[in-house]
């Protein structure tokens, strides 16, 4: 689940007046995972605190690189077992007895599912419908709560208590060391956990006049919303292998294939035409492909704005597809094969792309593949308007794993595996504007797998004399290779488009001095000429 759907808090206090304790915790959210770990280093061991830190770091680091084919259960059990073996072996080597010893609890949230495990007596609770339930299992001697039967690093083998649960909206997950629950009853935990980890640990400390008998740690994970992408993914829907003209799905009759792979069609229902897009057949076996398509469906459903085609996800679908309004127009790429855009039309286009990008930013998204093929040119009330298509390329801002984009429109840093951000999107907008006005690319067309150089930009005025100096400056700044000189955000570029009188001439580091400051060049040449004439005059007269 993302940061938008889950909130996290954590806090730890050392016992008595000590500055540091043996507890250690960490919370991380990356990709579609939320991971939290709480460790309570065994105080009777010489290296309990170090063990707690090592276990936490080991689990978090390994989950960043989890093999795609692994289940979450396999990952949790494998990573816990491996760090247990490492700490036990190190203890025997250094101390000839177990000294790197700690308890551990781990919670991993993916989609609408909680995957968790514990070793030792640190606990995991679930708060739902005003009731608190312990989900973890205490590894203690019966009748002797202070004696652990299992912990990380205590033996070469480890007993892992693993469990899973579905999560619901407004659930709260409490992870804590025994320092917390030994001071607070479940009724007290229930009463105070709603205010977050800091509050509940401070409340525990206040119960013993700020003189905690043990290190005390709490981590709280709050489920603000369920994961809608996972909800769509879990639906038991069919994916047809082959599609052909005349096929009917829930009343939608396929009439014309729009894309070579035959997954996007014009369809007809009740005498109206729509566009229907099916999931790739490979999504049946490939979870990564299914994830990407499901995100596309979710974005198509929730992104409601005038620059996108209207989209609907029928509630009673029999297959994985979604429906879009059929746009009456052609792609900008097709349009540019016959003519370029006028200055006014190109400004309208650019403002549409910037407004679209600013809208997506509210959802922490970027389009990812802005180019003329993904822009539809339409006629309305005697004016040309533009719609943006391809929900499939839309991705999270700052994503570094996403491969969205087309080489000729990718910012130079994207070829160095930089994240997708406002600046990289502005570059794509700049290249699209350049092409719309000139029919060319600023640095030439870039083929897949090519290693482009981005050396010298071709000034757009050379192709289109109608381009004013202020508009050329905007294009040059948007497509600048140097990120320090390129627009840093959408608002800056939009401001200059709205206020051409405030646009300053743009020059990159490779711009010749004659173009950058012709007056200075002429003054220097005039001065040199004057000196040369004076020298010749003195020499011959």
Describe the structure.
GO terms for molecular function: ATP binding; protein serine/threonine kinase activity. Keywords: ATP-binding, Kinase, Membrane, Nucleotide-binding, Transferase, Transmembrane, Transmembrane helix. Residues 8-223 form the PPM-type phosphatase domain. This is Protein kinase. This protein has three domains: 6-226, PPM-type phosphatase domain (Phosphatase 2c, domain 1, 4-Layer Sandwich); 231-325, Phosphorylase Kinase, domain 1 (2-Layer Sandwich); 330-510, Orthogonal Bundle (Transferase(Phosphotransferase), domain 1), CATH 1.10.510.10. The chain has 14 helices and 23 strands. The termini are far apart. The strands form six sheets. It has a six-stranded antiparallel beta sheet with strand order 13-14-15-16-18-17, with helices on one face. A five-stranded antiparallel beta sheet has the order 1-12-11-6-7. With 541 residues, the protein is α+β, with helices and mostly antiparallel strands.
């Amino acid at each position: 689940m993302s940061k938008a759907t889950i909130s996290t808090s954590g806090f730890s206090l050392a016992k008595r007046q000590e500055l540091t304790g043996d507890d250690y915790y960490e919370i991380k959210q990356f990709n579609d995972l939320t991971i939290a770990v709480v460790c309570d280093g065994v105080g009777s061991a010489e290296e309990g605190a170090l063990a707690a830190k090592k276990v936490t770091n080991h689990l978090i680091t390994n989950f960043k690189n989890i093999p795609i084919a692994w289940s979450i259960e396999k990952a949790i059990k494998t990573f816990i077992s491996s760090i247990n073996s490492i700490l036990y072996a190190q203890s025997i080597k250094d101390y000839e007895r177990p000294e790197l010893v700690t308890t551990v609890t781990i919670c991993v949230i993916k989609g609408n599912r909680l995957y968790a495990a514990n070793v030792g007596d640190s606990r995991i609770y679930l708060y739902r419908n005003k009731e608190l339930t312990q989900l973890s299992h205490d590894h203690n001697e019966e009748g002797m709560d202070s004696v652990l039967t299992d912990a990380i690093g205590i033996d070469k083998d480890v007993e892992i208590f693993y469990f899973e649960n579905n999560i619901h909206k407004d659930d709260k997950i409490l992870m804590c060391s025994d320092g917390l629950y030994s001071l607070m009853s479940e009724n007290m935990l229930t009463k105070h956990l709603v205010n977050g980890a800091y509050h509940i640990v401070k409340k525990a400390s206040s119960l013993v006049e700020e003189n905690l008998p043990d290190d005390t740690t709490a981590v709280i994970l709050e489920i603000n919303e369920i994961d809608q992408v996972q909800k769509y993914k879990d639906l038991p829907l069919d994916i047809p292998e082959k599609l052909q003209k005349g096929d009917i799905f829930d009343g939608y009759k396929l009439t014309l294939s729009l894309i070579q792979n035959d997954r996007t069609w014009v369809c007809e229902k009740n005498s109206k035409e729509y566009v229907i897009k099916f999931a790739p057949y490979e999504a049946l076996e490939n979870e990564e492909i299914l994830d990407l398509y499901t995100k596309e469906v979710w974005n198509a459903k929730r992104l409601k704005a005038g620059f996108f085609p209207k989209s609907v996800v029928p509630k009673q679908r029999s297959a994985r597809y979604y429906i879009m309004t059929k746009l009456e127009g052609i792609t900008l790429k097709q349009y540019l094969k016959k003519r370029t855009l006028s200055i006014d039309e190109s400004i309208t286009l650019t403002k549409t792309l910037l407004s679209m990008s600013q809208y997506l930013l509210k959802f922490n998204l970027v389009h990812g593949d802005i180019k003329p093929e993904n822009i539809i040119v339409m006629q309305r009330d005697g004016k040309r308007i533009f719609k943006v298509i391809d929900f499939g390329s839309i991705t999270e801002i700052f994503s570094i794993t996403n491969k969205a984009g087309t080489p000729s429109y990718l910012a130079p840093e994207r070829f160095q595996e930089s994240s997708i951000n406002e600046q990289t999107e502005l570059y794509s907008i700049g290249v699209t504007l350049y092409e719309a006005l000139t029919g060319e690319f600023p640095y030439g067309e870039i083929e897949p797998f090519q290693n482009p150089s981005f050396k010298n930009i071709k000034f757009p005025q050379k192709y289109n004399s109608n381009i004013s100096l202020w508009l050329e400056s905007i294009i040059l700044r948007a497509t600048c290779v140097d990120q320090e000189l390129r627009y840093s955000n959408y608002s800056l570029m939009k401001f200059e488009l709205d206020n051409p009188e405030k646009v300053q001439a743009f020059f990159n580091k490779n711009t010749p001095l004659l173009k950058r400051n012709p007056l200075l060049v002429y003054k220097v040449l005039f001065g040199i000429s004057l000196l040369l004439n004076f020298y010749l005059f003195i020499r011959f007269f």
